[in-house]
Design goal:
This protein is of the alpha/beta class and about 240 residues long. Helix content is about 40%, strand content about 20%. Helix 6 runs parallel beside helix 7. The longest helix has 14 residues.
Amino acid sequence: MPVLVITGTGTEVGKTVVTAAVAAAALAAGRSVAVLKAAQTGVGPHEAGDALEAARLAGPLTAAEVARYPEPLAPGTAARRAGRAAVRPREVAEAAEKLAVEHDLVLVEGAGGLLVRFDAAGGTLADAAGLLGAPVLLVASAGLGTLNTTELTARELRSRGLELPGVVIGSWPDAPDLASRCNVADLPDVAGAPLLGAVPAGAGALAPATFRSAAPNWLAPRLDGTWDATGFTLHETAP
């Protein structure tokens, strides 16, 4: 799995923190890692973007971006308003392929959801994943509404012939409500793929050293972690 694309069911579901956790677990396993942000929006020219935030939390890795735009909008819209060239799926794929030559794992983080448009032609992260032939890890929220967006994204991935290795809950609450606890059991069913982790709410605010030591505990063995999906599900869904 030299390239893994990471998308979310929408914005603010924890993609960057999950990306950092996957990177930290891989680094702890002795692998070299690069994080590529396909299109960074909402930050100025000298501000740290999501790739650098992943590096801050995870440890020494290569952080890169294909493009960035100042307004916090969909990449295609942000590029148009800034009067700058839009990101195209081929550029994302080529950047990831170059990084893969010198790294054991390249994590390509999208912006927003799977079908957020990069350019006026309608190019998306899904198109970039298709060009790469890379699996797409799906980050989902825990609470009410997540089943619909998770199933829609999973269906789109399958319709394109893209591999969905699993779902990671991007922010698992300290005190999960009934919907969240039920969703632990239901998410694998609607996704047609296993649950591969649950990152605790607020993990991004942890000290980097604490984050790095804890990250493998939040992720399943397929993601270089030790997290037990069966045990977690039984615990969280118990009456």
